[in-house]
């Protein structure tokens, strides 16, 4: 069996040879630089994207301009919002932006509809990915409603830190990540800095005591 991009996605490896050939022939590989708006509210979902490399950030913007982070799509994943829109024939209600350079497979609606209808393996791949992300979104709602902001910020800093333990994000960006105002982030980071957990500079937060941040996150989990 010839190796193709399909082998990057565990749920598609079981596709029969004829379906694999149809999927490869009916899709295309595309590349997008960082910082490009991939979809926006009101647009039609014409292609299911499967990421081969890079990261796409999905967020929603309110009428007042406030941004709320929903989730990220990483390599080896598909976008649940796109899946939902294609299944329901609805337009996008949120925006997706490439955080890094992105390489992806675009599966057009015709191929998507055909394979969902006739391939149990492809259908299972689509709905399994969909159900997992829905679970993630329920967790997000739970975090927003019930988790303290200091705990959520500590967790997000640990998640976003690079190999040098630096988070490259402004207070406004972190606010949109957590669905809160920039001022709330600023106050919380000031407290973290007072505890010697972080050091701040323009557009960056350096984690200097990851253990302290981790203990805060774990203590909240133990209390829930």
TrEMBL record:
<dbReference type="GO" id="GO:0003700">
    <property type="term" value="F:DNA-binding transcription factor activity"/>
</dbReference>
<keyword id="KW-0805">Transcription regulation</keyword>
<feature type="domain" description="Cyclic nucleotide-binding">
    <location>
        <begin position="11"/>
        <end position="133"/>
    </location>
</feature>
<dbReference type="Pfam" id="PF00027">
    <property type="entry name" value="cNMP_binding"/>
</dbReference>
<dbReference type="InterPro" id="IPR050397">
    <property type="entry name" value="Env_Response_Regulators"/>
</dbReference>
<feature type="domain" description="HTH crp-type">
    <location>
        <begin position="147"/>
        <end position="211"/>
    </location>
</feature>
<dbReference type="InterPro" id="IPR018490">
    <property type="entry name" value="cNMP-bd_dom_sf"/>
</dbReference>
<dbReference type="InterPro" id="IPR036388">
    <property type="entry name" value="WH-like_DNA-bd_sf"/>
</dbReference>
<dbReference type="GO" id="GO:0005829">
    <property type="term" value="C:cytosol"/>
</dbReference>
<dbReference type="Pfam" id="PF13545">
    <property type="entry name" value="HTH_Crp_2"/>
</dbReference>
<protein>
    <submittedName>
        <fullName>Crp/Fnr family transcriptional regulator</fullName>
    </submittedName>
</protein>
<dbReference type="GO" id="GO:0003677">
    <property type="term" value="F:DNA binding"/>
</dbReference>
<keyword id="KW-0238">DNA-binding</keyword>
<dbReference type="InterPro" id="IPR012318">
    <property type="entry name" value="HTH_CRP"/>
</dbReference>
<keyword id="KW-0804">Transcription</keyword>
<dbReference type="InterPro" id="IPR000595">
    <property type="entry name" value="cNMP-bd_dom"/>
</dbReference>
<dbReference type="InterPro" id="IPR036390">
    <property type="entry name" value="WH_DNA-bd_sf"/>
</dbReference>
<dbReference type="InterPro" id="IPR014710">
    <property type="entry name" value="RmlC-like_jellyroll"/>
</dbReference>
